[in-house]
Amino acid sequence: MKRAIASIAFGVVAGLAASAASAATLDQVKQRGVLQCGSNTGLAGFGVPDDKGNWTGLDVDLCRAIAAAIFDDPTKVKFVPLSAKDRFTALQSGEVDVLVRNSTWTMSRDTSLGLNFAGVNYYDGQGFMVRKKLGVSSALELNGASVCTQQGTTTELNLADFFRANKIKYEVVAFATSDETVKAYDAGRCDAFTTDASGLYAERLKLTSPDEHIVLPEIISKEPLGPLVRHGDDQWFDIVKWTHFAMLNAEELGVTKANVADMAKSDNPEVKRLLGTEGKFGESIGLTNDWVVRIVKHVGNYGEIFEKNVGEGSKLKIKRGLNALWTKGGIQYAPPVR
User: At CA 78, angle to CA 73 and CA 81, rounded to 5?
Assistant: First the structure.
């Protein structure tokens, strides 16, 4: 009996402690009045500031969507540029509230860093870029090549796996930062440059003569890129995760930045639950019930931010591919709001 009472008491205390911890990040963000978002130091289409400090990109818009859900104001974000080496430490230490910086979801990162991946906002894979004059049409033809890559990334590990598996000799030329890597490739210090395929299209824009370079057809890895939060804060994990899911569901249901006000009057049960006119789904995660209206009104649905930042209407001109909705041949799929 004593053991049973002690167990119950421990459970109550643990439950109270967990409840207090779960609200910590949201409370801190509200008290501070701004979301601190770990971002890329500068990757076109995903996270990059202009000369006036205005940030744009697919990852940037996810941060703005979280801020919109909380504050009804997508500008209440402080973007903290982080290198690949420093990104996880910055989140672990509390320097940022969320990391949205083209980071690959792997088992070791998910289980050993004290962090949780809160979804996949971009399905990617590693590729190679070479100069057209090299006369190479496949990565399998890179025997003896020197390859520029960034240190401390899954890119470096995948590179070694690919050449070892295919019994191809190569020389790795690794640099600490993305900018150093791109500049070295542009200066001719290596034959090829490898990173995520999305990054290749982005970085090609920085080269002296972009049209003189091609992206080879091989995709040599799975690179599910997504936002991360700290362990032990389930409410914040839910907010970040469901912000992404909300944008996907909005696209699937035809809710756009232009029509969200009219769609909020819809009689469609799915739309009503999504936009908060039925149920209390926003309140269940510590937000207002119109949280999705706030997101779409200020930022847009997933398809809108994809097209604007990296899609065929952008400078990168990337096809939706795997990032199309599941109803349109892709694998972007969100659980329902109900």
Answer: 140
